[in-house]
Amino acid sequence: MNDAPLGRSAEYQVLTTGYVGSTGPGVAATVSYIADAGRHVIFDPGMVADHDDILGPLAELGLGPDDITDVVLSHHHPDNTMNVGLFGKARVHDHKVEYQGHHWTNRDAEGYELTPSLRLVRTPGHSHEDITLLAGTESGVIAFAGDLWWHQHGPADDPVAPDREVLRASRRRVLAAADVIVPGHGAPFTADDNPPL
């Protein structure tokens, strides 16, 4: 089964490239913007040194917080969710619910399509609730994978992962569908860069 979305009309930009203690001065999330079919999506608005690290690059695209229609959270660790409140008008998606205002809609993330080019899939491993956003673009499929990989080099043995074999299976699933992976705390890398399983 190929998880890649059928559509190829999405566009994306990494708003800020994150880091962890071994690659930066603390911890910051890689926060991305994805657009398709009138949807303006922020992926993992987590910890950053300053709100302007997210809002500044967004403003350069001509967008403000109220223009964001959707926020996707890869999982519920604070370093990946800390700034979700910047986008108060957006629908927020996680592994099993869509939230907006005071509304709560149960739905499984597995195979859920925001648009024909934007698909959520369950990819547990770093936590039990991990999801990945697969975006079909003209240049290929981009996987916004949260902390399945913190950065291109892993870590190979994620010290937080509750089950190493589940993590490896999810990493294989993402690599089979994607051309580029956007990790949780580093720069994008290609599936051909041989990231650790």
Protein architecture, described:
With 197 residues, this protein is of the alpha+beta class. It has one domain: Metallo-beta-lactamase, Chain A, CATH 3.60.15.10. The chain has helices at 52-60, 78-81, 164-177, and strands at 11-16, 31-36, 39-43, 70-72, 91-93, 97-100, 103-106, 113-115, 118-122, 131-137, 140-146, 180-183, 189-190. The strands form two sheets. A seven-stranded mixed β-sheet has the order 1-2-3-4-5-6-7, covered by helices on one side. A six-stranded mixed β-sheet has the order 8-9-10-11-12-13, with helices on one face. Strand 10 and strand 11 form a beta hairpin. The chain is globular, with a radius of gyration of 15 Å. The relative contact order is 0.19.
CATH class: Alpha Beta
CATH superfamily: Ribonuclease Z/Hydroxyacylglutathione hydrolase-like
* Strand residue content: 25-35%
**What is the count of helical runs?**
3
Main β-sheet: number of strands, strand sense, barrel status? Answer: 7 strands, mixed
* Helix and strand composition category: alpha+beta
Overall structural domain count: 1
Rounded mean pLDDT score: 96
What fold name stands as the CATH topology? Metallo-beta-lactamase, Chain A
Radius of gyration: 15 Å
Strand order of the largest sheet: 1-2-3-4-5-6-7
The helix-strand sequence is EEEHEHEEEEEEEHEE
Shape: globular
Fraction in helix: 10-25%
Low-confidence stretches: none
Give the terminus-to-terminus CA distance. 20 Å
**Looking at the chains present, what oligomeric state does this protein adopt?**
single chain
CATH architecture: 4-Layer Sandwich
